[in-house]
């Protein structure tokens, strides 16, 4: 059997990125800020739905979810499907409540809603928490992919980990800095195709190695020790309990998709709200099927490892690449590399664009600059020239911001490499629980109450909520023996809502 070699991987990567650069060149020509931020709101809904698969799945799901199936901690067996079912409730809320709101207000940055509802401090707080949340989360996703490439590709070539990370971010920057979302929707569609092909091909290859046909494959997995989906015992101590997983899944979907500029930016690129809702409902179907296939893959990986006497790595994230590189043929290894890079880059490139968009719109006030340009021009040509000058100035600033976030990703990934020793999927959800909780509280308080808040106190409230959440979790585990699992985001959001209520008031006459 011919296995994948580092030199062969480099050839595959070169061809892969040459394709992405070609697409970026074609789609990024003469792109305005509107094209960079929202693709001129002209993207067909079915293209957005397909591109969103790659953005939402990411390299974390590609490796960590299969690796967790055979473990004994959170997301063991098929328990992650409980989270996925919770996602569906969250996506229904997004499609019927949040997206109509964003379209009605004609937003580029969704955090503009907070300024209209509460005030300047609330707006900046919401946008700031998004920047923190998405920067940490996306860097953690890239850290996982960089670690795999370092161990199996660049490490054997004596390339330092720092250089691996810099190269990965430089490639993303290279094909996104001109076209932004206008480019990303099409490159993400290509990458989604690659990682879905990798998923299906690997399931088929390992199933064949285990002598399973299509029907046997499903029945063997679901009837075996890895096939348990629902967990209803030990609510206090089991982090995989159905209530914890389902509720947190719904809240994570609302927070990490509906209140996240990255995912919503793609939805806002649709022509109208009806097309955006079609996109979301079709995306839900994709999501359930694909996550189920990843869990099937995870069970097959453990069954295959057992059949050949392979020792399971201490970090279960490494099981899939270990088998793909060392125990399957070169074709399977190539599919793995294409899938890993596709899933990782599809989420990371759009994250960089969303972070750039939020910073430029929410903190550099790109849109407000144009709206506040009330100067009267004697000639139309002067007005056009002034607009072109402003566009050029903003484009330069946008390019520097984009480059700055790329550099920040490098720094965070290197820090994570120095301190991380757990499965990255757990790390991602823990980060989400602490950083998206205040966002969840802000939006839910705004949507479901008519109260105003003393705006200048919103930031202290949102900073206090994660601290109180940590203390609450520690007390539960230390004195009550309770593992809250992924319910961190519910507790955090609850503290934020309580704090907002404490600084709220009702307008006279309301």
Radius of gyration: 23 Å
Distance between the termini: 75 Å
N-to-C SSE string, H for helix and E for strand: HHHHHHHHHHHHHHHHHHEHHE
Share in β-strands:
under 5%
Low-confidence stretches are: none
Tell me the domain tally: 1
Gross CATH architecture: Up-down Bundle
Structural class: mainly alpha
CATH names the topology as Sodium/glucose cotransporter
Overall outline:
globular
In DSSP terms, counting alpha (H) and pi (I) runs of 4 or more, how many helices?
A: 20
Strand order of the largest sheet: 1-2
CATH superfamily: Sodium/glucose cotransporter
Number of strands: 2
Helix share bin: over 70%
Mean pLDDT value: 81
Write down the oligomeric state: single chain
Please explain how this structure is put together.
The protein is mostly helical. The chain has one domain: Sodium/glucose cotransporter (Up-down Bundle). It contains 20 helices and 2 strands. Strands 1-2 form a two-stranded antiparallel ribbon. The longest helix is centred in the last third of the chain and has 40 residues. The radius of gyration is 23 Å and the shape is globular. The protein starts with 5 loop residues before the first helix and ends in a 5-residue tail after the last strand.
In short:
By secondary structure, this protein is mostly helical. Helix content is 75%, strand content 1%.
Structural features:
510 residues; mainly alpha; Sodium/glucose cotransporter; two-stranded antiparallel sheet; 20 helices; 2 strands; 75% helix; 1% strand; globular
């Amino acid at each position: 059997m011919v296995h994948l070699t580092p030199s062969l991987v480099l050839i595959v990567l070169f061809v892969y990125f040459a394709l992405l650069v070609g697409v970026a060149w074609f789609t990024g020509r003469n792109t305005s800020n509107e094209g960079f931020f929202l693709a001129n709101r002209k993207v067909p809904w079915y293209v957005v739905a397909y591109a969103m698969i790659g953005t939402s799945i990411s390299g974390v799901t590609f490796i960590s979810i299969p690796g967790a199936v055979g473990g004994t901690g959170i997301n063991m067996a098929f328990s992650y499907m409980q989270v996925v079912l919770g996602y569906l409730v969250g996506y229904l809320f997004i499609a019927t409540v949040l997206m109509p709101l964003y379209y009605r207000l004609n937003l580029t940055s969704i955090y503009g809603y907070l300024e209209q509802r509460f005030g300047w401090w609330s707006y900046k707080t919401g946008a700031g928490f998004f920047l923190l949340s998405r920067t940490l989360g996306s860097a953690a996703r890239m850290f996982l992919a960089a670690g795999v490439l370092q161990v199996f590709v660049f490490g054997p070539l004596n390339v330092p980990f720092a250089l691996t990370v810099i190269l990965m971010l430089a490639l993303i920057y290279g094909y996104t800095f001109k076209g932004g979302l206008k480019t990303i929707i099409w490159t993400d569609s290509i990458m989604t195709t690659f990682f879905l092909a990798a998923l299906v091909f690997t399931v088929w290859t390992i199933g064949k190695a285990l002598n399973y046909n299509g029907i046997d494959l499903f029945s063997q997995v679901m009837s075996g020790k890895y096939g348990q989906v629902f967990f209803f015992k030990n609510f206090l101590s089991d982090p995989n309990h159905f209530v914890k997983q389902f509720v947190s899944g719904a809240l994570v979907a609302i927070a990490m998709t509906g209140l996240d500029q990255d995912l919503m930016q793609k939805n806002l690129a649709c022509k109208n709200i009806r097309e955006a809702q079609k996109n979301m409902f079709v995306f839900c179907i994709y999501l359930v099927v694909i996550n189920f296939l990843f869990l099937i893959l995870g069970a097959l990986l453990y069954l295959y490892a057992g059949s050949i006497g392979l020792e399971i790595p201490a970090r279960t994230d490494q099981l899939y690449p270990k088998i793909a590189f060392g125990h399957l043929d070169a074709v399977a290894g190539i599919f793995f590399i294409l899938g890993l890079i596709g899933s990782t880059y599809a989420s990371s490139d759009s994250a960089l664009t969303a972070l750039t968009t939020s910073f430029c719109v929410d903190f550099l006030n790109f849109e407000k600059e144009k709206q506040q340009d009330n100067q009267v021009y004697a000639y139309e040509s002067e007005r056009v020239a002034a607009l072109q000058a402003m566009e050029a100035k903003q484009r330069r600033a946008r390019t520097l911001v984009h480059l700055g976030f790329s550099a920040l990703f490098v720094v965070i990934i290197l820090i994570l490499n120095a301190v991380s020793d757990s499965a990255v999927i757990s790390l991602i959800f823990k980060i989400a629980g602490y950083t998206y909780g205040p966002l969840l509280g802000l939006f839910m308080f705004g949507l479901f109450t008519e109260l105003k808040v003393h705006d200048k106190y919103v930031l202290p409230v949102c900073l206090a909520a994660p601290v109180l959440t940590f203390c609450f979790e520690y007390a539960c585990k230390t004195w009550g023996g309770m593992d809250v699992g992924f319910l961190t985001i519910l507790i955090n959001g609850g503290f934020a809502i309580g704090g907002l209520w404490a600084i709220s008031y009702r307008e006279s006459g309301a």
